[in-house]
């Protein structure tokens, strides 16, 4: 390798290192792209009705902010109320437990009574747990502040992109060579359409899951059924992991009433998850975007491992966009146009029959006597298909 090649390799390694260091910023930028894509589609709908672009953008952002505020207004107060109720019920439960232990101590042999637990011994054993909970509460507050800052950053970036999306798009396209810019612009358009379809499918799936959860919890007389249903719908945006997390809050709230209700809540969410996984998502996502389940799961594991919770949340749209770039650039523009010996061979028969010898083309193999029976059989088998492709082209 000469000096220029070494410098090129060093530049590639340095670029990968820099991109890795700013990976969280890149994820926030991608989140802003997704949000701006959704709001831009909404703004276009308003524009079709005769509304100006600026007013349509402001109205779209206002609707989004109203939805976010409404979401937290539905979710936060009921959970605070349930937490306050929990702080009242736990001491009562401990008092009843202590009375039950004392009654049990009068019925068991005297040799066993000293080994029975009491509230004091249990509180000493639970002290490390509560210390970890308090430490986790402090970490939760810190994480909440960090989340608010990141959310505001995404919101600002979204507003900037919505104000002049064409300029940002053209700036990205100009990063590529001039002969490839039209192609990149077409790929970006396809990514935008696919993200829009994914957002539509996710919105439908989220709404159905939220409605089923809300109705089921209302039938079981679980408090805050509306908030828990909305939370279940939102967490449904994270395949495989979200539904598992969404069942924990309603089960905990139901446990404050009776244990049997907690079991019924688990059964309810299990049924909803089966309906969503086996009927709802396959039908909706097949109409919008086609992703294999194994690819989705591996993408979640990959992005969650290397990018944390934000990577897990954005795993599906990242996979949708990555699939398009992989198919359009690597498969169609590179592998499908691979050339051998300076001549394009779309069927791959030159390299297959000629054993990687450019002088052995399909035409030479068909007319020459110096070929093996295996080569001639391959030519005889595939020649009609090659002719038909030539006629079509």
Biggest sheet: strands side by side, in what order?
1-2
Give the N-terminus to C-terminus distance in angstroms.
41 Å
Q: What's the shape? A: elongated
Radius of gyration: 30 Å
Query: What class would the helix/strand composition place it in?
Result: mainly alpha
Main sheet makeup: 2 strands, antiparallel
Alpha plus pi helix count: 15
- Residue fraction in strands: under 5%
Q: How would you classify the quaternary structure?
A: single chain
Helix and strand pattern: HHHHHHHHHHHHEEHHH
Mean pLDDT: 76
Query: Helix coverage percent of residues?
Result: over 70%
By DSSP, the count of extended strands is 2
- The poorly predicted ranges are 344-363, 377-393
Explain how this protein is built:
This protein has 393 residues and is an all-alpha fold. Among the domains are: 169-337, no CATH class; 344-383, no CATH class. The chain has 15 helices and two strands. A two-stranded antiparallel ribbon has the order 1-2. A hairpin with a 2-residue loop joins strand 1 (339-340) and strand 2 (343-344).
């Amino acid at each position: 390798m000469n000096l220029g090649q070494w410098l090129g390799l060093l530049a590639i390694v340095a670029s990968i290192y820099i991109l890795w260091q700013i990976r969280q910023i890149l994820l926030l930028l991608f989140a802003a792209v997704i949000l701006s894509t959704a709001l831009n589609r909404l703004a276009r709908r308003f524009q079709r009705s005769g509304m100006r672009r600026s007013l349509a953008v402001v109205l779209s952002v206002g609707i989004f902010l109203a939805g976010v505020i409404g979401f937290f207004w539905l979710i936060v107060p009921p959970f605070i109320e349930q937490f306050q109720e929990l702080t009242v019920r736990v001491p009562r439960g401990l008092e009843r437990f202590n009375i039950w232990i004392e009654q049990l101590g009068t019925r068991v042999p005297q040799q066993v009574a000293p080994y029975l637990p009491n509230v004091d011994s249990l509180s000493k054993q639970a002290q490390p747990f509560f210390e970890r909970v308090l430490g986790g509460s402090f970490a939760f507050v810190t994480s909440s502040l960090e989340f608010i800052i990141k959310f505001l950053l995404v919101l600002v970036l979204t507003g900037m992109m919505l104000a002049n999306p064409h300029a940002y798009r053209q700036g990205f396209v100009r990063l590529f060579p001039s002969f490839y810019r039209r192609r990149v612009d077409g790929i970006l358009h396809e990514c935008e359409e696919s993200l829009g379809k994914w957002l539509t499918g996710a919105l439908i799936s989220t709404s159905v899951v939220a409605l089923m959860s809300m109705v089921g919890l209302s039938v079981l007389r679980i408090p805050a059924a509306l908030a828990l249903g909305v939370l279940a719908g939102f967490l449904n945006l994270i395949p495989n992991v979200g539904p598992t997390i969404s069942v924990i809050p309603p089960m905990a709230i139901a446990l404050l009433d009776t244990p049997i209700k907690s079991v019924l809540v688990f059964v309810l969410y299990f049924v909803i998850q089966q309906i969503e996984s086996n009927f709802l998502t396959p039908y909706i996502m097949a109409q919008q975007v086609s992703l294999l389940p194994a690819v989705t799961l591996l993408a979640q594991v990959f992005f969650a491992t290397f990018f944390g919770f934000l990577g897990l949340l954005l795993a599906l749209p990242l996979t949708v966009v990555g699939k398009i770039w992989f198919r359009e650039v690597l498969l169609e523009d590179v592998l499908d146009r691979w050339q051998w010996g300076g001549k394009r061979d779309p069927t791959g028969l030159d390299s297959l029959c000629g054993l990687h010898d450019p002088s052995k083309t399909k035409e030479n193999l068909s007319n020459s006597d110096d070929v093996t029976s295996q080569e001639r059989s391959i030519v005889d088998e595939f020649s009609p298909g090659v002719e038909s492709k030539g006629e079509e082209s």
